[in-house]
Design goal:
Layout: E1 2-3, E2 13-14, H1 20-23, H2 28-37, E3 46-50, H3 56-63, E4 68-72, H4 76-88, E5 95-98, H5 106-110, E6 115-120, H6 124-128, H7 130-143, E7 147-157, E8 172-178, E9 184-189
Parallel strand pairs: 3-4, 3-6, 4-5, 6-7
Antiparallel strand pairs: 1-2, 7-9, 8-9
Length: about 200
Amino acid sequence: MLKILGGHLRSRQLKTPKNDDVTRPWTGRARESVFNQLRGHIQGGNVLDLFAGVGTMGLEAVSRGAEHVVLVEQDRKIYAMLEGNITALNCADTAYAIQCDALSTIPLLRAQAPLDVVFVDPPYVMMKNDASRQRVLNQLNEVESILAEDGFVLLRTPINPEHTDHTVDSLIGPEIHKEGQGMWILFYGKPPRKVES
């Protein structure tokens, strides 16, 4: 049973598929850890949730006071559940679902810039393949142009980033956080702006 952990929607249930392998929801502990680290960035912020699934992270952000959240999911059945969760939580004025490829240009065009937080949670099979992992990292590279100066991009990966390169040319990081067996959360930020002399 998947529930919102904090904020004004706390304890509200999210509809999820019967087979957890389809969406691989975040554990409550990992979610709480991430949102504790993002304190001060969610309230009143703009959030983009790529590979949103049923809305675990994006709707948690809504509950914790985000002003504008775009949730991107391609799978038709999962997207229907995501829309259902937005309706059930009565947060359609804040949460906007888009059915499309999270690695296309559409999410970046539809997101409310500047973005304070970007969640990127690709299917694990995508991260385990060199070519598709590079596509994900390339999308992070594109996100930099609409990221707030103090914004964060969070990438969830099953691959140990100390053994496999997860660097993104346009972003600093990643700062590595291990969250349980075979799950790493990588934090990226914007490089400091060069001061004209």
